């Protein structure tokens, strides 16, 4: 009898974590590594949020909370959905979990039966297919193209839907491409979904606030109210409030789904940290004055990185609307030879070559299901980004 569960055979370790570890190892050997592989803002959590957590500790808010979250946070979340997305949810339609990742995991665990399919849009966030596999479902894929700026086209969505499709996971702005859907683009997708009433929508809106220029963020149930009864609208404080370590994600959806997710969570974690929940109340209800500062920095860095990568031999880099990632195409470099004589056969070879020769960590596109590309996270200082791009330029120029 095998000791480890068969389910684990279907799950790959996170490529982003593997690369980050390799970068750490090189750093420990004394190399000046610039890590562009992690999906985490380099800003500190705003002070008003930290103070709210400290005040919660002093008040003694340090005990178990209701499984789906403290009423004060669930109310704050309903206000957020109304104010920012025009969506009406009652507090008992809201769940708070241990990060956005946990929300998705709960939803899949609560709904997937063997054979159920979940459509992931390539390039996808690395965790979606693995979470689907862990929950006993089957991930299927709808591909995007660089010509469409990595945005899913309605025909491709239509093609990917089968009678077994239970969910489609949408993610705008996207990790890893940064692509975000305008209202008109989203409407074309929701029109397709309206024709397939058995398909549920899991919308991962983690990067909602990180959109640049005059781009207007939209979420599916807002664009098509007809989808409200089969949409789980997921969001969190990790990225927009620089709160990755506080582990707060949340979602709202139809009551029967939320009850099922509450049941799952009740037997898993009993709910997330009380202190973090009080901090999240302040994040959502308190001043939002840090946001324009974050956005301005990210927009400037996006423009810097896109411009420098587009001046790099063999790379083509679209300029995305949001998040803090770019996803350059490196197909022109496949088949080239590195200074050590090794031929670059895949985007992973290229990323490893850049890491080993120039000490810049990025993540290969094959980890996100679409390549040859790689992902750069520009959530780091302008100086480091400029230096990293110069190193990438030098590496690519030296390939033969
Ligand atoms: C698209 C996307 N969804 C969800 C998450 C998970 O967020 P959290 O850290 O709140 O679990 C991430 C984090 O990288 C992400 O990029």
Automatic annotation (TrEMBL):
Its cofactor is pyridoxal 5'-phosphate. Residues 31-392 form the Aminotransferase class I/classII large domain. It comes from the Bacteria. It is an enzyme of class 2 (transferase). Keywords: Aminotransferase, Pyridoxal phosphate, Transferase. Gene3D superfamilies: Aspartate Aminotransferase, domain 1, Type I PLP-dependent aspartate aminotransferase-like (Major domain). It catalyses: L-aspartate + 2-oxoglutarate = oxaloacetate + L-glutamate. Its EC number is 2.6.1.-. PROSITE patterns: AA_TRANSFER_CLASS_1 (PS00105). CDD domains: AAT_like. One of its GO terms (molecular function) is L-aspartate:2-oxoglutarate aminotransferase activity. GO terms for biological process: amino acid metabolic process. PANTHER family: ASPARTATE AMINOTRANSFERASE. Belongs to the class-I pyridoxal-phosphate-dependent aminotransferase family. Homodimer. This is Aminotransferase. It comes from Bosea vaviloviae.
């Amino acid at each position: 009898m095998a000791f480890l569960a068969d389910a684990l055979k279907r799950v790959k370790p996170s490529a982003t974590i593997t690369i980050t570890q390799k970068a750490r190892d090189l750093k420990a050997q004394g190399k000046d590594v610039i890590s562009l592989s992690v999906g985490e803002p380099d800003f500190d959590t705003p002070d008003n949020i930290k103070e709210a957590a400290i005040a919660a500790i002093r008040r003694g808010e340090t005990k178990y909370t209701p499984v789906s979250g403290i009423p004060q946070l669930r109310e704050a979340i309903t206000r957020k959905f109304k104010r920012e997305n025009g969506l009406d949810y009652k507090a008992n339609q809201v769940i708070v979990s241990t990060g956005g990742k946990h929300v998705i995991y709960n939803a899949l665990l609560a709904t997937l039966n063997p054979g159920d399919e979940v459509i992931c849009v390539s390039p996808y966030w690395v965790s979606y297919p693995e979470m689907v596999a862990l929950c006993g479902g089957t991930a299927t894929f709808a591909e995007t193209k660089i010509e469409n700026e990595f945005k899913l086209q309605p025909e491709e969505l239509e093609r990917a839907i089968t009678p077994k499709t239970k969910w489609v996971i949408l993610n705008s702005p996207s990790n890893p491409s940064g692509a975000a859907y305008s209202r008109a683009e989203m409407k074309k997708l929701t029109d397709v979904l309206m024709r397939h009433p058995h398909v549920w929508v899991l919308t991962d809106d983690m990067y909602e606030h990180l959109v640049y220029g005059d781009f207007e963020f939209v979420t599916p149930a807002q664009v098509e109210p007809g989808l409200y009864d089969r949409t789980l609208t997921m969001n969190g404080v990790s990225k927009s409030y620089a709160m990755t370590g506080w582990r707060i994600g949340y979602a709202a959806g139809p009551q029967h789904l939320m009850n099922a997710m509450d049941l799952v969570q009740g037997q898993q974690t009993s709910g997330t940290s009380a202190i973090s929940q009080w901090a999240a109340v302040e994040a959502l209800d308190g001043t939002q004055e840090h946001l324009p500062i974050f956005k301005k920095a990210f927009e400037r860095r996006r423009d810097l990185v896109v411009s420098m990568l587009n001046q790099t031999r063999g790379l083509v880099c679209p300029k995305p609307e949001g998040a803090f990632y770019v996803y350059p195409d490196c197909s022109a470099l496949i088949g080239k030879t590195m200074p050590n004589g090794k031929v670059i056969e895949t985007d992973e070879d290229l990323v490893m070559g850049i890491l080993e020769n120039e000490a810049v960590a990025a993540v290969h596109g094959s980890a996100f299901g679409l390549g040859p590309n790689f992902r750069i996270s520009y959530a780091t200082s302008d100086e480091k980004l400029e230096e990293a791009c110069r190193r990438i330029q030098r590496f690519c120029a030296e390939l033969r």
